[in-house]
Amino acid sequence: METQYYTLIEKQDFYEIIENKYGELAVFIDAREGQPDEPVLEFDGKKTALLKRDKRLAVRLDDIHPDTVAPLAEAEFIMIVELKGKMVDRVYACPVENVEEIVFEGRQTRADELVKSKTKDELLKSFGAVKSWTGGNA
């Protein structure tokens, strides 16, 4: 498969992996915007997986349960179930690729990332403002 560049990596804080009586696996995650395009799940054989959903977005799954490692490493395909609340938004299959190491490219988004807000004075200082003009009615 060709190397793809991802501009966004979203960390899935809570997800669920289930196995049916046939040994097939499904991963339940939050629904994302847009349709998946040639999705693939990369698994490092330890505790991290990366769902490359399309050329723009990848979803990171951390802390995979130890009992899931062997079935996931042996799986050729996995079902992805995207949920909006408790309702199924879409279901699709994707191949599983076992990799030595997950390489994260792009910037991480989602609510688990905190960015300190700047005050107006902090912004002006970091911008290096030397002059300021005001306009409009006072």
What can you see in these coordinates?
The chain is mainly beta and 138 residues long. The chain is built from two helices and nine strands, in the order ββββββαβββα. The chain has helices at residues 66-74, 120-127; strands spanning 8-11, 16-19, 25-30, 40-43, 49-52, 57-61, 77-84, 87-98, 107-109. A nine-stranded mixed β-sheet has the order 2-3-7-8-4-5-6-1-9, with helices on one face. The chain is globular, with a radius of gyration of 20 Å. 12% of the residues are buried.
Annotation keywords:
138 residues; 9 strands; mainly beta; single chain
Give a quick rundown of the structure.
The chain is mainly β. The protein is 12% helix and 36% strand. It has a nine-stranded mixed β-sheet with strand order 2-3-7-8-4-5-6-1-9, with helices on one face.
